[in-house]
Structure formats: structure tokens, C-alpha cells
Amino acid sequence: MVDEREPHDEKLALILRTAAAIFAEKGYHQASIRDISRATGISLSGLYYYVRSKEEILFRIQEHAFSTVRENVLRLMAEGGTPEEKLSKLVENHLRFFVTNMQEMKVLSHEATALTGDARRRVNDLKRRYTELAMGLLREIEPRKSPEDLRVATFALFGMMNWIYNWYRPGRDLQVEELAAEMTRIFLKGFPGESQPRDPVEGTTEPQPSIWRA
Amino acid sequence: MVDEREPHDEKLALILRTAAAIFAEKGYHQASIRDISRATGISLSGLYYYVRSKEEILFRIQEHAFSTVRENVLRLMAEGGTPEEKLSKLVENHLRFFVTNMQEMKVLSHEATALTGDARRRVNDLKRRYTELAMGLLREIEPRKSPEDLRVATFALFGMMNWIYNWYRPGRDLQVEELAAEMTRIFLKGFPGESQPRDPVEGTTEPQPSIWRA
Q: Given Cys at both, which of A105, A185, B84, B168 links B164, Cβ 3.0 to 4.6 Å?
């Protein structure tokens, strides 16, 4: 099994970040450990000190991303608020995370089925727990929904958010917090109606926390 | 350039359908013409009578899918109705098409950037025209929206719909027309509120038009 070392080690973080970019570019199956060695400047034997295989790299990228996004949401939930406010925080956290780590997110979306065995089960378990967090909020907002409708609504929300890697242009489209406010508004109130007024100031810099730094 | 033969030829339709399944399974870059030859039982020289390259196959899958889905919507729009009714038809057409051709749709989503040059431009042009059709309806529904908000709303809607290849289980989840009604409701009115009552009859068979037959 893959081991439990956390990517606080800078070299490991470099390996995972670089690998994510290569997987996003070429696809996981086409990429090789040799590509990662070349791009990081770390020798093959150096790489194998950190990871046992290409599959372990994919596992660690996925595990780290889903753990981080879920832990962030749990911390935000602990601040309290109405279910709608909590949902709005979940959407903003998810989108900020996604926009900041587009490469990693593309890998999560496209290589969801590339893992096998225990690694796949562990990632699926993390995903399931994160999905249930969102579904629980929707159940609080609208307790009358059937399980089938809750399922549709939860994945409609994730689809809305996750699809952004296909169209969102950082710096040209809405800023992340505006995007989050608008998607939350569409999801809770429907598309028609007034959007929130936009901040006319362009190009303000937001903190962009990479998932590879705590 | 790729030529204009339409896949009314059964053998070509077989090649494209089989190739779509193989691309969806292995990824486009990992798949070979040889894989397609093996799976279809058509010799390599037979394949090269129909298509010039693996890239032409990918192009024809994408071109055929986007043309078909857009032509269907144009036909439905021509029946008239309010913008909301038209949107509801677009959503049902899109989801039915998607559910019926999950393999092809996965290829469209994941291999969007695998095409190059002229083929890529032509597919992007088809996509843009289909996207603008949806955006035009949203503009009719809510003329006050800014272009930025229309863009967010349009891609939020497509994200909601396209994400289904990650979670939808035909035969276990809602039937396509129920799914379409619920997604349209969420998009136009917001998630809270009553969903339409469901038909309790399970396992009714719906016509499942494959994109490879007219």
C-alpha cells in the first residue's frame, strides 16, 4: 500500500505538482516516471525514494486534493451560520480551490477511474464523504426532497462548479468570490433575477493558495 | 482535410461507435488504429478506406455529436413556445443525447483538446454555435443580465448537464425526462421548492436513439 507521508516535504510537493501538470497535459496513461524526472530535475532513483510508482503519484495527488478541500470546508462549517450560508462557503471554497489548482482538478476529473484496488477505494471514500457533506447541507435547506432529488441536486451543483476547467479564464471572467456568489444564487434562487452588483475594480490580486502548501 | 462523407454508411458508423468506446476506455492517445481494427474485425487497409488517421476518427466523432445535438435542438425550437419552454426542450434533448451516448460524450469532454489545426477549429465552431443557442435563450429569459453573468449561467447549465457521465446510472436514477424536468426547475427556480411528482412505474423503456443512426 501507499504510505502515509504527507507532502510537507518540499521535494515531494514539487514531484506531485509537476506530475499533476504532466498528467493534465498528456493524460495519466501516456505520462511516464521519466517525464516527471526530466521536468523536476530529480533523478529516477531520487523519485523512487519518494514514491513507489506512477500510480502512487496519482493516488497522492487525488488524496491530497480531496482531503484538503474537505478539511477546509469542515473548518468553515465550524464557524456556524444558516445552511444557506454554509452552502455559500462550500461553493466559494470549492471554486477557489479549483481555480487555483486547475491542473490537479483536471487530473481528478479525467483520471477518476485510473486508480485500482485499495488506492481507488480510499479516494472514493474521501470523495463520498465530501459529497455527503454537501448533500447534508441541501437536506437541511430542503428537508422535503426525496433521496433521488437530493442526488440530482447535489451532482447538479458539483457539475456546475467542476465544469469550470472547461471555460473559466482567470483574470478575464468574474473573480472567484463573484463567481461563487453567482453560482450559489443560481442554485438557490434560479437563474432569472438580479445578480449581485460587480466590483468594477479589475485585476485585484487574490491570495492563491496552492494545494501543495498548507 | 477530412472529407465530408456522412456516417450513413453502416461500416463507418460501426468504426466510429467502436472507436468512441475504445477512446472512452483507454484515452485517445493510448488507443491505436490497431485496437480499432481488432475490435471491429475490419482490416487495417479496410479502415484506411474509411478514415485517413486516428485524428480523423476523433474529429468525426466530435463533429457528428455536436452537429446532431444542435440540429435536434433547432428542430425542437422551430416548434415555437416561450423561451422557458424552449430551454426545457434543449435540456431534455441534451440529456437524452448524453445518456444514450455516454461513451461518445466522455470522449467529447476528455479529448476536447486532442484535435489540432483545422479539425479543432471546425469542432470549436460547432460547439460555439451550440453554446450560443443556449445563451440566446437565457438572454431572452432574462435580458437584464450582463455578458459576464450570461456566460456564467450558460456554462453553469452545461456543467450541470455534462457532469452526469460521472454519476448517472441509467435504470437506477431518475428517467431522462424526469432528470431534465428537475434540472430545468433547479436552473430556472432554484433548488428549494417542490420537485415534480415522479412516475412510480419503474423500468419503462424509452426510445434510445444512438447518435449513429439518423
A: B168
